[in-house]
Amino acid sequence: MALSLDTEAQDLLFHQAHTARAFTGEPVTDEQVRAVYDLIKYAPTAFNISPLRVTVVRSPEGKARLLPHLTEGNRVHTAPAPATAILSADLNFHEKLPTLFPVKPTLARDVYGDPGVREADARLNASLQIGYFVLGVRAAGLAAGPMSGFDRAGVDKEFFPDGRQRSLVLVNIGRPAETAYRPRQPRLDAAEAVSFL
What we know:
By secondary structure, the protein is an alpha+beta fold. The chain contains 9 helices and 4 strands. It has helices at about 5-15, 30-40, 60-65, 70-80, 95-100, 105-110, 115-140, 150-160, 190-195, and strands at about 50-55, 85-90, 145, 165-175.
């Protein structure tokens, strides 16, 4: 069955996309990051809570604060990357609900009055948005290098000391260098991963 998305777009977003490990020195601009966010803000979230927050680290000072919290292997890829996005969940997303979900004015109190419920939903829904973020970076013609190998508590203390946000994933962003990609590894096919009841 043919997909509605044309082959070139399928290749850009999926078939030919890899996790990038090396980047050229070309900077990642504010405009590029904003364009990525303007595309991915339509990711589905429960009650449109939209808890993903993006902190872009580009300066030498910012990198010096971030690098000590990464595993050694990820430091090697992150230090020279033009930009690294700290993708986090805003635990106080409920403050934006009057704007984001005005059809239910009591939602913040009725559903998200419990901090534990709020944090669980923030993490889950921000994770949905993270998948879209990676696709948005690819759609912008940039390469993404998502990483989970870092000390989350350390990053949170360093960048979010007020406790409002929880880091989930780091993504290096930039134009891929010639050495950016390893050979593609096998994937499960539909017969192994999809079941029908």
